[in-house]
Amino acid sequence: MGKIYYLMGKSSSGKDTIFRMIMRSKEVSLKTIVPYTTRPIRAGETEGKQYHFVNEEEFKSLKDSGKVIEDRAYNTCHGLWRYFMVDDGRIDLSKNDYIIIGVLESFLKCAEYYGRENTVPIFIDLDDGVRLERALKRERKQEHPKYEELCRRFLADSADFSEDKLREAGITERFDNTDLDECLANIIDYIKKH
To answer: What's the predicted TM-score (pTM) here?
Structure first.
């Protein structure tokens, strides 16, 4: 039976970078699960790669048809943005292992849907000061920077990934991303053991 490796961490902890490096690695063979969102596409993102970008009506249609595994809604400074996972027929745990980027709440729903024994958390940790510097640098590159949203996300992460919530979710393993190469090596070893 295949596994779903659930890559998560606070914003700007390095999830996307580590995800890309894992996918390029010859040491593990994982297929991607592409989540869905109603938020606007960012500079450098591609439809169907980081997310499937849909509108609110498309979300409601998927929800009404019973295909939404989990969904989260955030009242951002720019309106309601949804992030969600869809059972769109692309996941076959009898044939493949998968990787997805998400948050703690979505990990728990995914584990409930596919089974905790099939859903392996990978929590990336990084100093808050370094994360804030990275987030600001990334936001400055956007055509229309959304600094208020950056601040909202940064503060929300403290609650969303609190020590109590991590403990309740059974997240005991952490991968420190102070040194990217070391972090990546540790994660690949972890995947190979599971």
So the answer is: 0.87
